[in-house]
Amino acid sequence: MTKTLIFKQTHGKLWFDGKFVDCNEAKISVQTHGLHYGSCVFEGERAYGGEIFKSRTHTDRLINSCKLLGFELPYSATEFERAKQELRQMSGIEQAYVRPVAWRGSEQLGVSASGNTIHAAIAIWEMDTYFSDKMKGIRLDIADWRRPPAVCAPVKAKAAGLYMICTLSKDAAARAGYNDAMMMDYEGRIAECTGAHIFFVRDGELHTPSAEWILDGITRATVMEIAQVRGLTVHERHIMPDELPRFSECFIVGSAVEITPVNEIKGTYFTPGEVSRQMIEDYDTLIHGKALV
Ligand SMILES: Cc1ncc(COP(=O)(O)O)c(C=O)c1O
Asked: Which residue in 97, 158, 173, 233 could disulfide with 205, CB within 3.0 to 4.6 Å?
């Protein structure tokens, strides 16, 4: 179900500290603070037909993630947007994955390194749909690791360090034969997946975990927009896992996975149906720059 995608730029130019550089020539120091202490934030975006979907929203979130980690992106949103657009055009890739990243540099390798230079880069590579046969649905494990509360980590930052438990969870799920893992929050409520948010359907209405301790999802917001146009009620609330059997459909949403139906969460089964199908169709309309009718 998961296609073999090369999740990395292997050729061509990337943008690195204000210049376009061959991706294999762009080098950073082994003594980089972002590498040792996780002072690094990033974005994951897609271009469709050459247009980066919600590009400015991603840039604004990146700038905010930097702030939440105590540093400033050394570019304005307008400058960063220009860099992304120029890189996209230079690459010639129409269906692209775009990966901006910003991190503290290598001047000091102590826990505190507030004077370190801030670096930024943008990589780009070709990206097809993440999962094939979407309406067949994917299988989710339930992760052992739980999402931290806002008093334990800057949970609203798309910070590299927060992905440590996502990588552990996704790899454990893959070893157990699942496509991904659903993660609980620190109190055992359903939170999100390792790189996507989650929605459930009951009696034609949508239910999704409230956003207090999870990333402010750009696709999640798009799903809300679609729901509004389609007259679907959305309940943002705390959802416990014992409710799972009472939902008929489930789908995960994110810039990378787009809208992907789920047919199983560790022994609880769902049938991807009309709400998921309509959501996929409407999302496809929006990402191609058209209006919903
Ligand atoms: C942990 C996590 N949750 C949710 C999402 C979905 O967010 P978005 O729709 O903004 O891509 C992502 C992807 O960035 C993610 O990494």
From this structure: 233
